[in-house]
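Weekly puzzle thread! Below is a chain. First person to post its structure in token form gets bragging rights.
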Amino acid sequence: MLKPHSTRIIALFLLLLLTGCTTKVTYNFLDWAIEWKVQRMVTLHAEQKHQMRQAVQEFHQWHRTTQLPLYADYLKSVENLLQQGPLTAAAIHAETDKIQLLLDHSFNKILPDVAAILAQLDEAQIKHLMDRFAEEREEYREEYVDISKSKQIKKRRDELTKHLNDWVGRLDAQQKKQIQLWAESMQPYETLNLQQHLIWEDALKQTLAQRKNSEMLLAGLQKLVFHRSDNWQPELEQVMDRNQERTYAVLADLLNNLSEKQRSHLQIKLREYQKIFLELAAGQ
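Winning reply:
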């Protein structure tokens, strides 16, 4: 939640946030990583820990056997799309929507278990949870807001460059220049995004206040997760729409003009991940 909302624009390169040769190791420890993150956000009692661990293990097994094959199929469709001809900004947008739907399947699966655990939290645990969100918001402020404009531009440039390097290999001078111009053209959104974090946290606090009503709690969490932009400030929505439109266009242009070596690198990467996801799904 506390990363810039614009990370969705590069979702094509961030499926599951699993990168590089450590993908299998990372995925096989996914249940442990989720448990660690939960424990970092809120201290659970013994019975709550047991319930959380069981829910995470069941989710991990479900995700491995049902979702990873879908991810492999999706990457195959991306490979086919890239071979069909020039991409458009609209096509890139459509792909990020597909990925969001894939990720939403996982959120939808785990959310009832999350709601069941949240319903058991006492007031001290709720306070600790909200304090952690506030701390993460301040970390976001320090990293993205309380820095100079030049540093904000550099962060955008470096993040996109890194992801493109991972997927297509080394960028040439013209591509680097194009990304630099893109980073400079982005309308600042960080301060607005920080304000939106506060709005989201307040909505979460209100939702947790009614946690003894299981139906209302689950409905509130679903709204926070699946309709996250419904309560965006109009100014933030306008800025993000403009930035996304610009970003989709730049990504389309970059992908349409890859060198043969970069196209080969991307194809190998897509096929590598297809293989990895299917092997993981089979328990290998």
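Puzzle host: Confirmed. Bonus trivia for everyone else. Confidence is low (pLDDT under 50) at residues 1-22.
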